[in-house]
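Q: Convert this sequence to structure tokens.
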Amino acid sequence: MIRRIAPQFFTLDIPGALAYYEAKLGFKCWARGETRRFTRIVARDQHAIHFRCAEPPQPTQQTFG
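A:
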């Protein structure tokens, strides 16, 4: 039986994601230290979500034969 999960969300805007999850959804941020500049964790009611900084998507060149 699964009792807890900790999903990882990739975002281009960690400060914006944190602001939304804290202000609108009531999560509290963990791991704000400089050593975790590209990763943040928010938690509420014993549930955690991990955010990671993602690079903007790059266009791909497709060739059709």
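The mean pLDDT is 83.
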